[in-house]
UniProtKB/TrEMBL annotation:
Catalytic activity: RX + glutathione = an S-substituted glutathione + a halide anion + H(+); 4-maleylacetoacetate = 4-fumarylacetoacetate
GO biological process: glutathione metabolic process; L-phenylalanine catabolic process; L-tyrosine catabolic process
Gene Ontology molecular-function annotations: glutathione transferase activity; maleylacetoacetate isomerase activity
Protein name according to UniProt: Maleylacetoacetate isomerase
Length: 210
């Protein structure tokens, strides 16, 4: 497998966690979203990912983009350890939390959006992360055990941790979200979340390395 990734991309981080949890060895090709006007816009990369985004995963003779589509494929072809619960209600909760992050929070503070917002980008990012986290905190109070849904790591956790990293990067006060803080801390103790961390990637700048 080949993963086209950017060290600080939360979408890429989700997939790196999934690959680590499932013990899948892969090669990583960095795509710098800032250098050369954004390497994701190159003609070569556009043939791999017409949306000009990361991540892209080449695996089993196919090329996949969109982090949740990739994670679902890994789940269906390499089901151990599972990232979606067997119980239909818990499975629905995992998908709900995942979608909450990947559809309602992360896109609104994505690099391409913030570039268009301009000088108010910090205020913009903080606003949408806070409003999303207020809802997420409420949801997690009903679903969480040790992790987002019960006591097993799920796809929801793969979405939560990178989003908390983004919140910290944009200087969001996390004190109002104790459940999010607690779950994030527990997940960051796990090896798969550590090896996939933005501070430990091949393209991580020296000054940001762990």
């Amino acid at each position: 497998p080949i993963l086209y990734s950017y060290f600080r991309s939360s979408c890429s981080w989700r997939v790196r966690i999934a690959l680590a949890l499932k013990g899948i060895t892969y090669n990583q090709v960095p795509v710098n979203l800032l250098k050369d006007g954004g390497q994701q816009h190159s003609a070569e990369y556009k043939t791999l990912n017409p949306m000009q985004q990361v991540p892209t995963l080449k695996i089993d003779g196919i090329t996949l983009s969109q982090s949740l589509a990739i994670i679902h494929y890994l789940e269906e072809t390499r089901p151990i350890p599972r990232l979606l619960p067997q119980d239909p209600k818990k499975r629905a909760q995992v998908r709900m939390i995942s979608d909450h992050v990947v559809s309602s929070i992360q896109p609104l503070q994505n690099l391409s959006i913030l570039e268009r917002v301009g000088e108010k980008k910090l205020e913009w990012a903080q606003h949408y992360i806070k409003s999303g986290f207020q809802a997420l905190e409420q949801i997690l109070q009903h679903t969480a055990g040790r992790y987002c849904v019960g006591d097993e790591v799920s796809m929801a956790d793969l979405c939560l941790v990178p989003q908390v990293f983004n919140a910290e990067r944009y200087k969001v006060d996390l004190a109002p979200y104790p459940t999010i803080i607690r779950i994030n801390k527990a997940l960051l103790e796990l090896e798969a979340f550590q090896v996939s961390h933005p501070s430990r990637q091949p393209d991580t700048p020296a000054e940001l390395r762990a």
